[in-house]
Amino acid sequence: MTIGKSSPRDNRRSSAPDPQAGPQAAPEPVVELPAIGRVLADARRQAGLTIDQVSGDTRVRVPILHAIEEDDYPRCGGDFYARGHIRAFAKAVGVDGEALVARYDAAHGGAPTAQRPTQLLDTGPIKVTDHRRPNWTAAMVAAIVAVVALIGFNLFSGEKTVTTAGSASAPLPTASAPASPSVQPPAPAPSVQAIAAAPADKVTVKLVAEGGTSWVTATDGAGKSLFQNNLEQGGAQTFTDPKQIKLVIGNAGAVHLYVNGKDLGPAGQDGQVKHLTYTPGDPQAG
């Protein structure tokens, strides 16, 4: 007998199944789960939602949602944001978000560390109103500068006015108002000697515009026009003819009449149109 050796037949016999050991259990089949992006895409379609609708509900940009459905997570900006986007996407389409996040962690290196995020989720097309507080300090400084400038201007103006008023020869300031045109003083009334010097064999009529401007027409005894124009305030016209002088005065109250050396006063009322005729030696209408 040889100890420690076995024949090939003995080896083959030892590898045969033991009929008394019973049937061996069959290995469990490996079930491959669909990708996270496919689960979300299928759930979105079953819910009848578009990518734009999910974006409006979750405040996640459309390109990011497309990237998640394609399992392209680097476009999410990191694991923290990818987990948040997956949860929001799953909630919008009615899927268990925590289960999908757990699958994401298993495929991408485990659960996140306990670290506070320093940035909010990506909220692309949603407009965020700027709620910065107004700069009240700058506004107050500007208001104070304006008040100081106004006080200084008023003080300077008052000082200038007092100085001007104290000087007898200095004119009053007229910087804010344009220089008004000089108004000619009304012509002085003719003296008694000038009126008395009117020749007795002719008719002499003098018009003086003392109360304003008036339209005047004057013709002689032959019908010749002697004057036809405005008689301005302070202006005067004198007409002489051997036979007669005819007048049309548009604003009779503004014109003072001197006829044949006599003062007849205003030709009429303000705004009244008067037709007058004078002859030699007769100051009244002929």
Q: How are the strands of the biggest sheet laid out side by side?
A: 4-1-6-7
Instruction: Compute the number of strand runs.
Output: 8
Helix content: 25-40%
Mean pLDDT: 76
Described by the principal axes of the CA atoms, the overall outline is rod-shaped
Strand content: 15-25%
Helix tally equals: 8
The radius of gyration computed from the alpha-carbon positions, rounded to a whole number of angstroms, is 58 Å
Q: Secondary-structure map with pairings?
A:
Layout: H1 8-15, H2 36-46, H3 51-58, H4 62-69, H5 79-93, H6 97-107, H7 136-166, H8 192-196, E1 203-209, E2 214-219, E3 225-231, E4 236-241, E5 245-249, E6 255-259, E7 262-266, E8 274-278
Antiparallel strand pairs: 1-4, 1-6, 2-3, 2-5, 5-8, 6-7
Helix pairs in contact: 2-5, 5-6
